[in-house]
Task: structure prediction
Amino acid sequence: TFLLNTVLEFNHFKVTTVNFPEDALIKLKSEQYDLFITDFRMDKLNGLEVLEKIRKELQLHELKVILLTFKDLNAEELRVLTEYKALYLKKPFLPNELVQKIWDFFQ
Result:
């Protein structure tokens, strides 16, 4: 997380960090963000479940979402990402790959 934050801040992104997906959902309810980056594998909710809550419960359809994952996504997971207009980045990745994916996302 520290390295990711450092790279993003170096590239002039304002970063807010939380440790649990539930905390992220609370933040998203109360503050406006342009981009949400999350890991796929987490304890209580996985990244796709968080994405679904962002789109369906919070109604944040324009929020850009990137999931970071070590795993190869199956067809259903890829379908959900496509349906909810989210991207994913396979770990390990170089910091500049994430920055480029973010810039491409906003083009």
